[in-house]
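step=predict obj=Pyrroline-5-carboxylate reductase n=281
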Amino acid sequence: MSENVVHLPKIAVLGAGSMGRAVMSGLLKPDVHVDGGIVATNRSAQRAASLSRTDGVTALATDDDPNANREAVAGAGIVLVAVKPAMVPDLLTEIADAIEPDAIVVSVAAGVPLARFKELLPASVAAIRSMPNTPAIVGKAVTGLSAGTRSTPEQVALVRRMFETVGTVVEVPESQLDALSTISGSGPAYVFFLIEQLTAAALDKGFTPEQAAQMVNGTFIGAAHLLEASDSTPEQLRIQVTSPKGTTERAVAVLQEADLKAVFDRATDAALARARELAAG
């Protein structure tokens, strides 16, 4: 087997919804070997049946088997908690005496602090918080990772390798994770919103929906690829497009007058306030 293969222990994904499935997509790549395979749980038997058709995945439905989550964590080295935040305490209580003593519990639930995991899980179990974003589906995620007081550097490195199968990883203290979520976690929505607005502007100028989509979607995708391939900063790339006294300069001046920085400050502050509300219950 190639030395570039990522080796991971058996993984239980509790709550195989959109984010759980996105992470699983990385774990199912040819260069990732999950020792013991992946066991995924969700409520619906129909969804479990569709997941069961994926090689390397065993899917269980809690509607069919009330012990599905406990069965899933048996023997798992990594337990990915991907249920809705409000469901996390009950789930942790449910699996507490079934989980392996040396397991790593990884949360993708927004607003649930590590202190809650520490309170509800055995003392030997490490907990790590994460905040991936939806581009994980295409292997382009940015995932924030925060270690808990019980996690070792080796455990954090193992979880980092898991998330690197779907993109890049930024390690931050837990105190910064909610702020990170307002940037990279919510960030795809901001980008899609900008695409919506520029598309509306194109429609107002008489272009068809198909033409507007080609122009706007293609421009955002092309600009993102250019940024990825370039050593230049976004500011430098913007300046390259903006000829002195030209049309782009006039347009950018209008955007600068709108003080988009202040708008993004207010938007991300609002998201952070909501994250703190969730954490407070």
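step=describe
The two ends are 47 Å apart (CA to CA).
step=end
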